[in-house]
Amino acid sequence: MTTTNTGDRVRPRTAKPRKQAAWKLRLYVAGQTPKSTRAFANLKVLCEAHLKGRYQIEVIDLLEHPHLARGDQIVAIPTLVIKLPPPVRKIIGDLSNADRVLVGLALQQVV
């Protein structure tokens, strides 16, 4: 336990409970194409099955915001960028290969 000095009094400070690790995922798409829609649906299913309550998905439509592709060096779409936990990783495609996506998310070892 640590303490905080508040003038004449010393008051104990309790440690904040640690949050579970959160996955921050960014999915780059180009409009509402079947492949982009499938990628989001596949990602959502995998996240609900393996990361329930511990993930955040940000979808970036490059037709609306093309300048955002430069920051993550996007060269193909759809692309999933795993921002957290480190290291940053990328998976290109519609995310239909669940084993490959789970390896990319570091939730399954390469076999």
Strand content: 25-35%
Number of domains: 1
Could you name the CATH topology? Glutaredoxin
Mean pLDDT: 83
Briefly note the structural class of the backbone.
Answer: alpha+beta
Number of helices: 2
Identify the CATH class: Alpha Beta
> Could you describe the largest sheet, including whether it forms a barrel?
4 strands, mixed
Low-confidence stretches are 1-7, 9-18
Element string (H = helix, E = strand): EEEHEEEH
CATH architecture term: 3-Layer(aba) Sandwich
- Work out the number of β strands: 6
Describe the protein.
The protein is of the alpha+beta class and 111 residues long. It has a single domain, classed as Glutaredoxin (3-Layer(aba) Sandwich). Helices cover 22% and strands 31% of the residues. It has 2 helices and 6 strands, in the order βββαβββα. The chain has helices spanning 34-50, 98-104; strands spanning 2-6, 9-13, 23-29, 55-61, 79-84, 89-92. The strands form 2 sheets. Strands 4-3-5-6 form a 4-stranded mixed beta sheet, with helices on one face. A hairpin with a 2-residue loop joins strand 1 and strand 2. It is globular and about 30 Å long. The termini are far apart. The model is unreliable at 1-7 and 9-18 (pLDDT under 50).
